[in-house]
UniProtKB/TrEMBL annotation:
Signal peptide: none annotated. SUPFAM superfamilies: Xylose isomerase-like. This is Sugar phosphate isomerase/epimerase. PANTHER family: HYDROXYPYRUVATE ISOMERASE, XYLOSE ISOMERASE-LIKE TIM BARREL DOMAIN-CONTAINING PROTEIN. It comes from Marinobacter alkaliphilus. The keyword Nucleus does not apply. It comes from the Bacteria. GO terms for molecular function: isomerase activity. Pfam families: AP_endonuc_2.
Amino acid sequence: MIRFHLCTISFRHQLVSLPELATWAGATGFDGIELWGVHARHLLQQPGLDGRWLKSQGLGIPMVSDYLPLEGGEQEAIRYTRDLCRLARHWQAPKVRTFAGHQGSAELDRGQRKALTRRLQTLTRCVADEGLTLVVETHPGTLADTVDSTLAMLADIDHPAMGINFDVLHVWEAGADPQLALQQMAPWVRHFHFKNIHQRDQLGVFAPANVYSPAGSRQGMVPVLEGACDYRPLLDTLANWQQSLANPAPLDISLEWFGPDSYRVLSSDLRQLRLRVAETGEQPQSLAACQ
């Protein structure tokens, strides 16, 4: 089963309530809503809104996406992580997401990399103690910016509660073939982010400082199946992989749209992605070697 979710970060600059968004998401055919951390916290102030309520609407929250402190005092970082886990449990979300720091792997010396990995390992244990999974997003400018660095990080942390949020576009941005990268990282992949760009030289629009700014450029952002990164082979692989397993675990995919006209684009993307998955043939494309 492939489950598609929208991200509340897509509506970060719009005045939209969670009940309104949930009604639209359910009617449109989404399976759930990925909650941005700042949204998840502010919504605590609204009585009656929690994971149980959302499930009553036929939706789930697969993940709360936040940014754990990987520098500074360890005890402060542990307190922050435990608070985030309590927040995730309030929303009945099984996963919390973070970035692996704020420096690219090539910028880190051995000591810095070791310190960052140790902090991630400590926080992974905290998340595991709460019965949740910590997922690190593949993203430029972090320790998880290339396939090799990500695999080394996973090996160093070596904990079953550590997983990967496989951001397809950023894996492709790093020069890797997403299908081959997925084969290498399959045992750790717990979530996917889908987004796309018209041309590779426009990828800078996804830099956090630009994306989070209301005045930031959105030039080049395009629907998932219309951009320079070809998602079709990966979708076919995922669909066939699901069909080949007797009891497949659900595959969670969030559509991470940062551009304008969110309702129209997300609705269209969901419809086209579901159609592509439904039309996938029975040709032997699987990740069997990675199981």
